[in-house]
Specification:
disordered N terminus, Alpha-Beta Plaits, alpha+beta, about 50% helix, Formate dehydrogenase/DMSO reductase fold, 4-stranded mixed sheet, 18 helices
Length: about 550
């Protein structure tokens, strides 16, 4: 016999389970409170970190940095590194240090800096593959990783050393102001990570390539000029007022050598040697000198040009996409250099084929082509010098104080004349050419060598007294850190000239096939080549501009 429970007192197991499921967990209760609250507790802070409205016409987003609030804790660096998944040693935001110019003052100021999203970005104009874009609405300068070939030219055209090369990926990467977060109404990682609210995003007016940014209040010529690219970052705070107008980067006197860029150095030396050698041979032939070793010289020039082309590919992080380098022809001098040197290489190969290969295989065709050979030679030489000019402009337009167009032209055109003339002299001696031919090449090369070495020494001495910090730093690197390399360059240049002078004397009493003469000629030309390679190495490693403190 079964008994039934009073009405309302019977509770089945299923009822207990359902009642337990209806109870909210702590996380669910918190989420519910946030969803039902009219205003999140931290909303006022977030509203101050990013603008409420998107930029309008003639405006863009920009970083705002309160110098008084920055303590140098580097929380912004850590937040940026973590959120963007950067590799070890890769940083898109850095913290530097300014110190008072008066040592007795003892004041210092930490400075956080990242990409300034310039009004007229140097990185975008210089890129040969159009791997940069500036958003028309937000003004943010983004790097297109998939498009990049890793040429690293943007690291030179940016006066603030913002783009960073990633060895593992073979491309350059940089800050994009956390575009994805901004589009969702969230502050960038560095902004949100700063415990003092020193970094925020604001809307600034931009017109005619000029921005309303207020860069660091440092002593004149201690940092890159803001007029070059129109940076938009605005540094504010009481300490940036006239109270201390003598701020200077703490690392201003650092004289560490820069990157040697060996593939670029070899590319430049070999192509300029090739152009100089071929031009010297063509010039002497056009002047009517007999016995100019034009055939041998053109083959040698083609060989050096081929080595230079190979070095160019070795410089790229992703050489398989090198064909994209023609996309920036409208704005990038690197694209123009590729076109000019490519045309020179093609014409030179055609000249060698018309004068060496065709006569040996198709003598009848060679007779037909013979009237066109002189014009082809002149066209080839002119294309080569156009290539040298584009190489000069690649570095001259970067705005680096020690890479002005005038100085770069002296070094690059001088290298072409020196190595080309002395190389032609060496070939003429080995070919047993008449004395006037060898003397003509030698005289031109010797004068050019003396002129270039003396000009370099004068620039070095003048820069040591210059007010421009970058130029003075470059001269100090040469004098204090790389003095032995400077002396090697001078001694090697002198040995090259002296060795060829000795070879000219020996050639008057010794056969061209004499081992002694061949050894002297080879040693002299090798010395001249060592001098030029050393000069090109100094060209790169002494460029020590620093766009922002601590970079």
């Amino acid at each position: 016999m079964s008994t039934s429970a009073p009405e309302g007192s019977l509770r089945l197991l299923v009822d207990e389970v359902l009642a337990e499921q209806a109870q909210l967990s702590a996380v669910e209760r918190f989420a519910l409170s946030q969803n039902t609250s009219a205003r999140p507790a931290l909303e006022p802070w977030y509203e101050e970190l990013i603008p409420a409205a998107r930029p309008g016409a003639g405006e863009q987003y920009a970083f705002r940095v309160d110098l008084d609030a920055c303590t140098g804790c580097k929380a912004c660096v850590t937040a940026c590194h973590s959120l963007n998944g950067l590799d070890e040693g890769e940083t898109w935001r850095k913290v530097g240090l300014l110190v008072a110019g008066d040592a007795a003052d003892g004041a210092q100021q930490t400075v956080t800096g990242a990409c300034h999203h310039c009004a007229d970005p140097g990185c975008m104009k210089g890129c040969p593959v159009r791997a940069y874009e500036k958003d028309e609405t937000t003004g943010i300068v983004r790097h297109l990783d998939d498009q990049c070939i890793g040429c690293k030219y943007c690291t030179l055209t940016c006066p603030y050393d913002v783009p960073q090369y990633n060895e593992r990926l073979g491309i350059v990467r940089k800050c994009d102001m956390c575009t994805g977060r901004l589009e969702q109404g969230e502050a960038p990682a560095c902004v949100q990570g700063c415990p003092n609210g020193a970094i925020s995003i604001e809307v600034v007016p931009v017109a005619g390539g000029e921005a309303a940014g207020a860069m660091l209040p440092t002593a004149p010529e201690t940092l890159a000029s803001a007029s070059t690219t129109g940076p938009t970052t605005r540094y504010v705070g009481d300490r940036r007022s006239a109270e201390r107008p003598w701020w200077r980067p703490a690392d201003l006197d650092a004289i560490e050598p820069g990157d040697a860029h060996w593939p670029l150095a070899i590319l430049l030396v070999c192509t300029q040697l090739s152009v100089g050698l071929f031009s010297a041979l063509i010039a002497m032939t056009a002047l009517g000198f007999e016995g100019v070793p034009l055939t041998t010289g053109s083959i040698a020039a083609l060989s050096f040009a081929l080595v230079g082309q190979g070095a160019a590919f070795a410089h790229l992080g992703r050489p398989q996409y090198a064909f994209r380098a023609l996309l920036g022809l409208r704005t990038s001098w690197m694209s123009r250099e590729i076109v000019a040197l490519g045309a020179y290489f093609s014409l030179l190969a055609g000249y060698v084929a018309a004068t060496v290969f065709v006569p040996a295989v198709f003598p009848d065709l060679a007779t037909t082509l013979l009237p066109l050979v002189p014009a082809l030679g002149v066209s080839t030489a002119l294309a080569g010098w156009v290539g040298v000019v584009t190489s000069i402009m690649i570095y001259g337009v970067t705005g680096r104080p020690s890479w002005t167009i005038r100085r770069t032209a002296l070094r690059f055109a001088g290298a072409a004349v020196v190595t080309g003339s002395l190389g032609a002299c060496a070939l003429s001696l080995l070919a047993g050419s008449p004395l006037p031919v060898s003397l003509g090449f030698f005289g031109f090369g010797a004068i050019a060598t003396i002129a270039v070495v003396v000009a370099e020494a004068r620039h070095r001495a003048r820069d040591l007294r210059a007010p421009n910090a970058a130029r003075k730093r470059a001269a100090r690197i040469e004098s204090e850190r790389l003095g032995e390399r400077v002396r090697l360059r001078t001694i090697a240049a002198a040995l090259g000239v002296a060795g060829l002078a000795l070879a000219i004397g020996l050639a008057q009493t010794t056969a061209a096939s004499s081992p002694i003469l061949m050894l002297v000629v080879a040693g002299a030309f090798a010395s001249s080549l060592v001098a030029t390679i050393t000069e090109r190495n100094l060209f790169f490693v002494t460029e020590a501009s620093r766009g922002m403190p601590g970079v």
